[in-house]
Amino acid sequence: MAKAIFITGGASGIGQAVARFFAARGWFVGLADVNAAGLAATRAMLPDGMATTHVMDVRDRDQWATALAEFTAASGGRLDVLFNNAGIAIGGPLANASGEEIDRIVGINLTGVINGARAAYPHLKATPGSALVNTASAAAIYGSGGLALYAAVKFGVRGLSEALDCEWAADGIRVRVVMPSFIDTPLLDSNVSGTNYTARDAVRAAKLEFTPLDEVAQQIWDGIERDKVHVIIGKTARRLAFAARWMPGGLRKQMRRGRGMG
Length: 262
Fold this sequence. Notes:
Strand content: 5-15%
Family: Belongs to the short-chain dehydrogenases/reductases (SDR) family.
Structural class: alpha/beta
Keywords: Oxidoreductase
CATH class: Alpha Beta
CATH topology: Rossmann fold
Protein name: SDR family oxidoreductase
Helix content: 40-55%
InterPro entries: NAD(P)-bd_dom_sf, SDR_fam
Organism: Sphingomonas rustica
Order of helices and strands: EHEHEHEHEHEHHEHH
Number of helices: 9
Shape: globular
CATH architecture: 3-Layer(aba) Sandwich
Largest sheet: 7 strands, parallel
Strand order of the largest sheet: 3-2-1-4-5-6-7
């Protein structure tokens, strides 16, 4: 029986790229998202008979249980990797954020990841050599002005991953947290709260790089095998990690000036 990966946020972006990468290597793929049309488009990119689709909201625990039960029934009982990847982006100062925006980003980006980890645990434990892979962000390395909400939830995902790496080691479950810098995905098309420009516009204005999706998928594949919790992807993320470790005072000053890592 082929190895099996279940991917949230599978309708586009990193989730779609990872689905294509793993399927090309013979893995059975479960695709989950709220976007049914996007799921169908991703599935059409994969070999026939090698994928299932699940329209679900990661905030709903019952939908998690149903989707994973359906997927493991189709995969022969295997769940080798849960890729907890679904997420949204909200930018702008915290003072400008609405209550609805706060609840939505916390619900999807943090509670959704916790729900996925809890729902997947018995399936991962029953599959030798399995892994939980959570998508965080370079924003989980050091918080940036204008990304307070996004940094908060991504730091939460990082902390959860580090804790589960300890808790689940005895069960033989590897845990990884992916911390990419800027990837050319639909997330960057979201408007910065209180402005008329997008996150993509801000990245371009700062002259920062976009990491290609194929490179992200390759590094996630490689990162599962390496014995490190953190999978840091992209030049900006690597520079940020270096500065946070070796020159935190200088990094703080730079962030306060609003220059980021450009």
